[in-house]
Amino acid sequence: MLSHQLSVPTRVAFVSGTFWSSGVSEQIEETVDSDKAPMTPEQMERIYVSESTRLVRVAYLMCGDHAEAEDVVAEAFAQCWRRWQTNPPDTPGGYLHRVVVNTAVRRMNRRRRTIPVDRAATVGAPDDRLTLLAALDTLAIDQRAVIVLRYFDDLSEHDVAELLDLRPGTVKSRAARGLRRLEASLRSTYEVTE
Amino acid sequence: MTSALTPDPELEALARRRLCDLTADVQPTQDLRRRCLSTSENRSAVAKANHSNVRRWLVAAAAACVIAAATVMFARPSDRDAETVVDRPVTPLPTAAQPPAVISNPVRPDTTTPGGGGKFEVLPAPPEPFGLLLASADGHIVALDTELIDPNYVDAGVRITGRGFIFDQMRNEWRAVNGGGAPFADAMVVGGEAEGFELLGVARTPESVGPQNEWRWSVWLSDFDGDGAVIAKPIGDIGSLNSYLDPTPPLFRAPNSDGRLALIAAHASTAPDAPLIVHEVFADGLRPLGPIESGTESRLRPLAVGAGRDGNLFLLTQEIDDSRGVSPVVLFEQTDSGWARRSQLPFPEAFAVWSQDRFVLVTNQAIVDGVSRVESGLGLLDPYSGAVGLLDPYSGSFEVVSDASVPGCEGWPGLAVTLTGDVYVESCGQFGFVDVDAATWETVDRRLDDGRELEQLARDGAGPAVAVARRPGEFDPNDPVGFDPNARVVILG
Asked: Nearest C-alpha of chain A: how many angstroms from B59?
């Protein structure tokens, strides 16, 4: 059991290089790792309290839709709950984060197969939010994941590479290309509407 | 100076700022909290609390309850009026009582890995033969005893006695339990804990109430009393049904945040144009959710029910139009003003399960030129393919995720969707596994190492995927009771 109340994490806790063993996740990890007992609902709730905001935001940036982001997070929790009954991980926060990212990538891959995303077409005036979401939509899924993890989650190239099962060099090049593509997309949107 | 492979620091800083700004007001909703934690706390702490409430209620009313239940059990239920359903706020039915650990058993030596579709986990043999295998949405696996209603008249049907076994995953063994001894014709497990399990079932009266083949149906719930004994109590009538059109009133599960647990859809009467009525089931009564009118020459046959994220209900039906010979699948949504017709799908029938905010359907037929007939379905399928699709009730869109065929299968009597979204389909002894995300289909080798073969999926469809395995030739499929001392229970996936 957790011995003390957990606080909502700040992004500082997940600054590059310390993601897998820092902040709230570390507190949870210590407890879970100590006895390897099945996760209790109370532990699950604490993990939810500490991680949900960040996870929903990551999923939102990956999917571009709040409802779908919540679907992703709910699906991730369901998967983790099942797995953690017999095999709780050493790093629940990191594990959950990985499941959310992978679930979002899977969903986006499927969505692109079935529903063409044309968010930009619905954008009239250059509303910053829609414009940026439309620009994110222009990225390949893997590229988008790198951008979100690297620049929203502040993960290091090494951590992003580990999470997405890539080489750090690939993360670096995808980030560079993704940023340039975002810039070009945003620039063209504003030029068109001016 | 940055190379093509090195991110521009200015762009990096800009991206950090813009992405943070973009999500500044993105917050998880209360609904997400419920959805995430219902997989854990609702199945243990909350359920336990609910159960405690029910127990307190039962203790307080123990004497009256037992007497009333016994009185009604042995009285002529036909005296009750089909329309006298409870229509008032009632206590929600208790939800599940244990964490869903049953579905996550540790791998044991007798686990086998056949080709395709993931692994099987063969459970120890139940101490006695069983006639019906049920799996609840919260992970309980129950093997129930059944008996012929009239041993001299096989067509009279099978009755679920309520005696049976529940699998204790902690001890890796079956425990004998009692589900209340109700005269169920069909049932679902709605919860369970140490003393036994709760069954929600439908029962027909022992006598006809109208012309031949018309029966009056009642809903029963087995529940614990304060001393741990199990009783069955009738909680309401759902009307008289024509046994040809409605052989058994379908039981659906649609849990939501309001505590609603199960629903039963049935026609108000045996009249051809009788409306369909969905009854919400509570521990002490039924509440009708308003009629769904069908046309003068059509009839609605319920297929599945689901609870949307706003607590509204979705109902999937087959609309049988005798005059035109068309029977499309139609989606209805519960609204403030009643049930609204939302969309119509281009196939005449489907097996459907509500899972993760959507319907998972299996169908193998299509409507062509407005006539219900087996044809190249959905533009993608041959007549003997099984299309597995996802129906998004919010947009009404249907997405085919698998259209591979299983040789020799013309019907789809079994569909199970696990808590993690894995889909299993069973037909004519064939088993298939659909990876919804990858849109792939695998035929599961149903032969186990010990010579047994998977025969049928357990009833329910929205919990763990559980199947019965038997040795070929040792079971008489014409035996209506279905006892087989060699049968084993297998968890798929």
From this structure: 28
> What is the band of B479 on the pLDDT scale with cuts at 50, 70, 90?
low
In chain A, whose CA is at the least distance from the CA of B422? A79
The SS3 call for residue B192 is strand
Sign, CA torsion A165/A166/A168/A172: negative
CA separation for the pair A177, A168 (Å, rounded): 14
Pick from A60, A151, A58, A65: nearest CA to A97? A58
Cα-trace Rg, chain A: 18
d(CA B66, CA B72): 10
CB of B64 within 8 Å of a chain A CB? The answer is: no
Structure tokens that stand for B352 in this block: 């459907």
Could you give the CA distance from residue B255 to residue B280 in angstroms, rounded to a whole number? 11
> Torsion angle of alpha carbons B259, B262, B268, B274, nearest 10°?
100
Residue B270 pLDDT greater than 60, yes or no: yes
CA distance B359 to B418: 13
Q: Is B28 on the interface with A (CB under 8 A)?
A: yes
* Tokens representing residue B66 in the block: 């037992």
* Residue B232 neighbours by CB distance under 10 Å: 25
The interface pTM score, or ipTM, of the predicted complex is: 0.76
Q: Residue B385 has what DSSP assignment?
A: B
Length of chain A: 194
Average the pLDDT over each of A22-36, A85-99, B109-123, B461-475 and give the range with the smallest value: A22-36
Assigned token pair, B42? 């609702």
pLDDT tens, B177-215? 776 666 677 777 776 554 556 777 787 765 555 555 677
In whole angstroms, give the CA distance from residue B434 to residue B402.
7
Answer whether B8 sits within 8 Å of A177, measured CB to CB.
no
> What distances in angstroms separate CA B163 from CA A83, A178, B75, B135, one per listed residue?
32, 62, 22, 15
Q: What are the tens digits of pLDDT across the range A23-44?
A: 333 333 333 444 567 778 788 8
Q: Residue B448: pLDDT above 60?
A: yes
The string of pLDDT tens digits covering residues B74-130 is: 332 233 232 222 222 222 222 222 222 222 222 222 334 443 445 678 898 888 888
Asked if the C-beta of B100 comes within 8 angstroms of chain A's C-beta atoms, the answer is yes
What's phi and psi for B50, nearest 5 deg?
A: -60, -40
B26 touches chain A (CB under 8 A): yes
Is A110 in Cβ contact with B439 (below 8 Å)? yes
Do residues B365 and B377 lie in contact, with contact meaning Cβ atoms separated by under 8 Å?
yes
Q: Which residues of B touch A60 (CB under 8 A)?
A: 23, 26
Which residues of B are less than 8 Å from A154 in CB distance?
Answer: 16
